[in-house]
Specification:
By secondary structure, the protein is an alpha/beta fold. The chain is 38% helix and 15% strand. The longest helix is centred in the middle third of the chain and has 17 residues.
Length: 310
């Protein structure tokens, strides 16, 4: 009986038992329904290969794709009061913050960093939508202002990757005060003569759109991104009209002058680098050519030119 208990029965159980498969092994494209292997999706910068759908991306991962070699230095931002209003709805605000920090490994919704992009120094901030919908609160406002002050101190361009559902209701009027504060910081960049480039990702709505997200020197949007202040349903109920198809999407806003350009995520780094070089009036760094190529491209001697003409 031992061989039955020790060998046969375990094999039967292992055959009948359901194998555990990681939930995130395959990811479904929201647009086409295509199932994509998560490693292939990550290797493609979280852009679905066939449908070209741009999925949301973590803040740290976006900075890794943006800076040269994925190397950047995190800028420390000032600390703020955690729960100044002692807010509570279905849960306490402090508990929501703890969960968001554990989920994203971030202190708040905005991450500021500095590094090199195509060899030039640049300061950037990114909003992580996974942190309470990328909502704008006191900590996020301080982070954005600190990032702009860092850009002014180092005399670098500043790039803002916006992704937000708007102001953070748990902080009330203190959240809304970040709109004028960040606007003043944008003016500080302008006074210093430094470029401010905004990248609008999916989604960028609410108070963020009403402040720093629409004050850039150049506005770039990712394909298919939802951009606007109020939601489409609210607008339709207010004006009592049906909105056109694709309203508040990147391509529609570009065609109507609200966005300067729509750029694929794979081309974002090169596009921003060229814009910064143009706005800073500096020459683009060209790769060094091999000596053999330089020898072939050198001007011919007079004797060589005469023999060629003969």
């Amino acid at each position: 009986m031992n061989w039955i208990n020790n060998l046969v029965r375990p094999k039967i159980r292992s055959f009948l038992e359901k194998r555990d498969v990681p939930e995130n092994l395959w990811i479904k494209c929201p647009e086409s329904g295509e199932m994509v292997f998560h490693r292939d999706l990550e290797a493609n910068q979280w852009v679905v290969p066939n449908s070209n759908f741009h999925m949301r991306i973590a803040g740290k991962k976006r900075l890794e794709y943006f800076f040269d070699g994925g190397n950047f230095e995190k800028v420390e931002t000032p600390e703020v009061a955690v729960d100044p209003l002692k807010f509570r709805d279905q849960r306490r605000y402090v508990d929501r913050l703890k969960d968001a920090k554990a989920k994203t490994e971030l202190e708040d919704s905005v991450l500021v960093a500095k590094g090199k992009v195509n060899g030039y120094d640049l300061t950037a901030a990114v909003q992580d939508f996974a942190f309470m919908g990328g909502s704008l609160g006191m900590a996020a406002g301080e982070a954005i202002i600190c990032g702009m002050e860092t850009a002014v101190a180092n005399k670098t361009p500043f790039v803002m990757f916006a992704a937000s559902g708007g102001a953070r209701m748990q902080e009330g009027i203190l959240s809304l005060m970040q709109l004028p504060r960040t606007t003043v910081a944008v003016q500080m960049l302008r006074d210093a003569g430094l470029p401010y480039i905004v990248v609008l990702t999916n989604p960028t709505t609410g108070g963020v759109t009403a402040s720093y997200a629409m004050l850039g020197d150049v506005h770039i949007a990712e394909p298919g991104a939802l951009i606007g202040f109020a939601g489409q349903r609210v607008i339709e109920q207010t004006i009592r009209e049906k909105l056109p198809e694709g309203f508040q999407r990147s391509e529609y806003l570009r065609d109507h002058g609200m966005v300067d350009m729509v750029v694929h995520r794979h081309d974002m780094k090169e596009t921003i680098s060229q814009l910064c070089n143009l706005l800073m009036k500096r020459e683009t760094l060209l790769p060094e050519l091999p000596k053999e190529t330089l020898a072939l491209s050198a001007p011919q001697s007079e004797a060589g030119q005469e023999s060629f003409g003969a």
